[in-house]
Amino acid sequence: MFPPKWLYFLLLLVAFELLADILAKQFSLNGRLLFAILALLGFLAANTAWLISLRTGAELGKGAVLFSVLSGIGAVMIGVLVYHEKTTPWQIIGLVLGIAAIAFLSV
Fold first, then answer.
1. 32-38: which pairs have CB atoms within 8 A and are 24 or more residues apart?
2. Number of domains forming the structure of the chain
3. How does pLDDT run across 30-56, given as a tens digit for each residue?
Protein backbone atom coordinates (compact mmCIF):
# COMPACT_ATOMS: atom_id res chain seq x y z
CA MET A 1 0.00 0.00 0.00
CA PHE A 2 2.78 2.46 0.91
CA PRO A 3 5.87 2.95 -1.24
CA PRO A 4 9.06 1.37 0.11
CA LYS A 5 11.09 3.44 2.56
CA TRP A 6 14.07 3.65 0.20
CA LEU A 7 11.96 5.47 -2.39
CA TYR A 8 11.48 8.45 -0.07
CA PHE A 9 15.26 8.77 0.32
CA LEU A 10 15.69 8.44 -3.44
CA LEU A 11 13.27 11.34 -3.93
CA LEU A 12 15.27 13.32 -1.36
CA LEU A 13 18.38 12.50 -3.36
CA VAL A 14 16.78 13.93 -6.51
CA ALA A 15 15.56 17.04 -4.67
CA PHE A 16 18.97 17.79 -3.12
CA GLU A 17 20.70 17.09 -6.43
CA LEU A 18 18.44 19.53 -8.29
CA LEU A 19 18.90 22.16 -5.60
CA ALA A 20 22.67 21.72 -5.84
CA ASP A 21 22.46 21.97 -9.63
CA ILE A 22 20.61 25.29 -9.34
CA LEU A 23 23.22 26.60 -6.91
CA ALA A 24 26.04 25.44 -9.20
CA LYS A 25 24.39 27.19 -12.16
CA GLN A 26 24.09 30.37 -10.09
CA PHE A 27 27.81 30.11 -9.28
CA SER A 28 28.58 29.74 -12.99
CA LEU A 29 26.52 32.84 -13.79
CA ASN A 30 27.83 35.25 -11.17
CA GLY A 31 30.97 33.64 -9.70
CA ARG A 32 29.97 34.11 -6.05
CA LEU A 33 31.84 31.58 -3.93
CA LEU A 34 28.86 31.21 -1.58
CA PHE A 35 26.88 29.49 -4.35
CA ALA A 36 29.75 27.06 -4.94
CA ILE A 37 29.94 26.17 -1.24
CA LEU A 38 26.16 25.74 -1.00
CA ALA A 39 26.19 23.59 -4.15
CA LEU A 40 28.85 21.32 -2.63
CA LEU A 41 26.78 21.00 0.54
CA GLY A 42 23.75 20.13 -1.58
CA PHE A 43 25.70 17.40 -3.36
CA LEU A 44 26.86 16.08 0.02
CA ALA A 45 23.25 15.97 1.27
CA ALA A 46 22.18 14.26 -1.97
CA ASN A 47 24.78 11.52 -1.63
CA THR A 48 23.88 11.04 2.04
CA ALA A 49 20.28 10.40 0.95
CA TRP A 50 21.59 7.95 -1.67
CA LEU A 51 23.55 6.01 0.95
CA ILE A 52 20.48 5.81 3.18
CA SER A 53 18.35 4.74 0.21
CA LEU A 54 20.74 1.88 -0.54
CA ARG A 55 20.90 0.93 3.14
CA THR A 56 17.10 0.76 3.41
CA GLY A 57 16.71 -1.64 0.51
CA ALA A 58 17.11 0.15 -2.82
CA GLU A 59 18.59 -1.97 -5.56
CA LEU A 60 21.65 -0.32 -7.10
CA GLY A 61 20.55 -0.74 -10.72
CA LYS A 62 16.94 0.28 -10.26
CA GLY A 63 17.81 3.16 -7.94
CA ALA A 64 20.53 4.52 -10.21
CA VAL A 65 18.27 4.45 -13.27
CA LEU A 66 15.38 6.08 -11.40
CA PHE A 67 17.71 8.76 -10.07
CA SER A 68 19.18 9.43 -13.50
CA VAL A 69 15.81 9.72 -15.19
CA LEU A 70 14.16 11.82 -12.48
CA SER A 71 17.11 14.18 -12.09
CA GLY A 72 17.40 14.46 -15.88
CA ILE A 73 13.76 15.39 -16.24
CA GLY A 74 14.04 17.85 -13.36
CA ALA A 75 17.21 19.43 -14.75
CA VAL A 76 15.67 19.92 -18.18
CA MET A 77 12.54 21.45 -16.65
CA ILE A 78 14.63 23.84 -14.52
CA GLY A 79 16.81 24.71 -17.51
CA VAL A 80 13.80 25.48 -19.69
CA LEU A 81 11.53 27.15 -17.13
CA VAL A 82 14.04 29.03 -14.94
CA TYR A 83 17.05 29.65 -17.20
CA HIS A 84 15.16 29.74 -20.54
CA GLU A 85 17.42 27.18 -22.18
CA LYS A 86 16.25 25.69 -25.47
CA THR A 87 15.37 22.00 -25.94
CA THR A 88 15.82 20.02 -29.11
CA PRO A 89 13.41 17.42 -30.45
CA TRP A 90 15.95 14.74 -29.47
CA GLN A 91 15.91 15.95 -25.88
CA ILE A 92 12.11 15.75 -25.81
CA ILE A 93 12.31 12.19 -27.17
CA GLY A 94 14.83 11.40 -24.41
CA LEU A 95 12.46 12.74 -21.76
CA VAL A 96 9.62 10.60 -23.09
CA LEU A 97 11.86 7.54 -23.10
CA GLY A 98 12.98 8.39 -19.56
CA ILE A 99 9.40 8.49 -18.35
CA ALA A 100 8.79 5.16 -20.10
CA ALA A 101 11.85 3.75 -18.31
CA ILE A 102 10.36 4.73 -14.96
CA ALA A 103 7.11 3.02 -15.86
CA PHE A 104 8.93 -0.19 -16.91
CA LEU A 105 11.10 -0.20 -13.77
CA SER A 106 8.05 0.25 -11.55
CA VAL A 107 6.30 -2.84 -12.90
1. none
2. 1
3. 999 999 999 999 999 999 999 999 999
Q: With 90 as the cut, is the pLDDT of residue 91 above it?
A: no
Q: What angle do CA 52, 57, 60 make, to 5 degrees?
A: 85
Phi-psi label, residue 2: left if phi above 0, alpha if psi -120 to 50, beta otherwise: beta
Average confidence score pLDDT of the chain: 92
pLDDT-above-90 percentage for the chain: 68
- Cα separation, 96 vs 49, in Å, equals 26
Residue 22's domain comprises: 5-106
CA atoms within 13 A on the CB side of 2: 4
Check residue 84 and give left, alpha or beta (phi > 0: left; psi -120 to 50: alpha). left
Are residues 90 and 97 in contact, defined by beta-carbon separation less than 8 angstroms?
no
